[in-house]
Amino acid sequence: MFSRIHEDIATILERDPAARSSWEVLLCYPGLHALILHRRAHWFWRHGFTTLARWISNLNRWLTGIEIHPGAQFGRRVFIDHGMGVVIGEMAEVHDDVTIYQGVTLGGTTLVKGAKRHPTLARGVVVGANACVLGGFTVGEGARIGSGAVVTKAVPPGATAVGNPARIIEASREQAREEAAARMGFSAYGVTQGDDPVALAMKGLIDSASGHEHQIALLWAAIQKLQAAEAREDCVPLDAACDEHFDAEQLSRLVRPS
Length: 258
Known about the structure:
- The protein has 7 helices and 15 strands.
- By secondary structure, the chain is an alpha/beta fold.
- Helix 3 packs antiparallel against helix 4 and helix 5 (171-184) packs across helix 6 (197-231).
- The termini are far apart.
């Protein structure tokens, strides 16, 4: 038990820059207190003392503002930051290295007893403040749930879910867009992840230009191969280059305000 508490304190010191000492964490962090009390409640729950387990859970809620059903399962190095208003249901599974902020709900959407009603958070998941994750699905390893998001379906590993209802943003897609934007001479960090029309238009321009550029390069490469096969002799190369190239100045003129 003491080794787990020491590990939890070290986790908080690592992830929270406001934490100054182990004593401060031990005495002043309700997320730590909630996990300690939940482990006692979970032990009684597994051994059939369900009413006592629920009483400890209710005491935990009264003391910390964090409601964790005694049936919920937690891994190691879980950090509940601030924690006020967090609600975690009976069949929720929170794996190692997960971070949960205040106001988060890990709830269910079905009343069928015995069914997997609550979500599973895989290793390294971060759930932002006031987010709701509702249902018996899995949030993949390393995924991110944005603040205020309402997630009702599985989230792939490494992806981000934002909005209500949540939209899944694939990490690989965003990385490819950043790389394409860098080749065009400007940074896509200026493009927000929201629903702003200008931001969506910019994303469309980046994706379309990158796709056209790649297709044109493939076409010219195929033409050069056919030319070489037919001529069977040295010839003057085609005027167009096979390498992908994008005119950043032209794109700037297109999107510059009038």
